[in-house]
Structure to design on (251 residues):
C-alpha cells in the first residue's frame, strides 16, 4: 500500500532523510520509532504529500504520489496530528463534518449519520451533548479520539499517526493504543505510525522500524526488535542517549 524508494529529504543543506526504503503492506501497521528530531514527522508529511522529497519516490497503492489527484489512492490518506489539530472555533460535530462538507457529495442528513457513526467508532457515541462541545472543553484523550473520528469520516485506506500518545497519562495512552488496534482490525486500514514511545510501538505495530540519522537501521516484528543485538537499537530500548555507540560497556 505504501512504498518508499531511496527517499531523501534535505532542508537548508541539512539532510533529514537519506536513501530511505521501506514498505507498508495493505492492512498492516508499521511503527517508526526513534529519538526526537530524527525525521519521523518529516516522513509522515512526505507520505501525506504536504512536502516534496529531495530525491526518491513514494508509491501509494502502486501509483506515484505525484500522479494526478483524480486517482482514488490520492484521496485515501488521513493524518492524525500530534496536537490533534482540531479547529478551536468549531464544535466537535463541525470539526468532523468539515471535510465531508468540502467533498460536496453527501447531504446534511448523511453527514449527520456519518459523524455519529465515527464518534461511536472511537467510543464517544454515548454522550448526546458531546457533538456540541468545543475543543477547549475536551480532555487531551478526547481530543485525540475526535481527531481520529474526523480522519475516519473521510473513509481513508491509509491513516498516518504522528505521536498519538504524546502528552497523555498512561491509562489514556493505553486507551488510544487499543483504539488504533480496533480501527486497524475492524476497518482493515493501512497505518504508518511514528512515536518515541516503545510501549505504543510494541502494542500496535505489526512491524517496527528504528529511524536513526536519516535511515531505517533495523526493522522487523516486535519480538525480533526486542531480541535484536543492534547496539543503537539496544541503546534506544534501554533509554540511553543515542549518540556514540556503546560496545561491551565502552563507548
Amino acid at each position: 500500500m505504501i512504498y518508499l524508494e531511496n527517499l531523501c529529504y534535505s532542508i537548508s543543506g541539512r539532510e533529514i532523510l537519506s536513501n530511505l526504503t521501506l514498505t507498508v503492506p495493505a492492512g498492516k501497521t508499521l511503527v517508526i520509532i526513534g529519538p526526537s528530531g530524527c525525521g519521523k514527522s518529516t516522513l509522515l508529511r512526505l507520505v501525506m504529500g504536504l512536502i516534496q522529497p529531495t530525491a526518491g519516490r513514494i508509491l501509494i497503492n502502486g501509483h506515484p504520489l505525484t500522479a494526478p489527484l483524480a486517482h482514488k489512492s490520492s484521496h485515501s490518506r488521513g493524518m492524525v496530528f500530534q496536537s490533534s489539530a482540531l479547529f478551536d472555533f468549531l464544535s466537535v460535530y463541525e470539526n468532523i463534518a468539515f471535510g465531508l462538507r468540502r467533498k460536496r457529495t453527501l447531504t446534511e442528513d448523511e453527514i449527520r449519520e456519518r459523524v455519529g457513526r465515527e464518534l461511536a467508532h472511537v467510543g464517544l457515541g454515548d454522550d448526546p451533548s458531546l457533538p456540541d462541545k468545543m475543543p477547549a472543553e475536551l480532555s487531551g484523550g478526547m481530543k485525540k479520539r475526535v481527531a481520529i473520528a474526523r480522519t475516519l469520516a473521510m473513509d481513508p485506506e491509509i491513516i498516518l499517526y504522528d505521536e498519538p500518545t504524546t502528552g497523555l497519562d498512561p491509562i489514556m495512552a493505553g486507551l488510544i493504543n487499543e483504539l488504533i488496534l480496533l480501527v486497524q482490525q475492524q476497518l482493515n486500514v493501512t497505518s504508518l505510525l511514528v512515536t518515541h514511545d516503545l510501549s505504543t510501538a510494541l502494542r500496535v505495530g505489526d512491524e517496527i522500524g528504528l529511524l536513526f540519522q536519516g535511515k531505517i537501521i533495523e526493522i522487523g516484528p516486535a519480538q525480533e526488535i526486542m531480541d535484536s543485538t543492534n547496539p543503537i537499537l539496544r541503546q534506544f530500548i534501554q533509554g540511553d542517549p543515542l549518540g556514540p555507540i556503546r560496545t561491551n560497556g565502552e563507548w
Notes: Residues 130 and 149 are 13 Å apart (CA to CA).
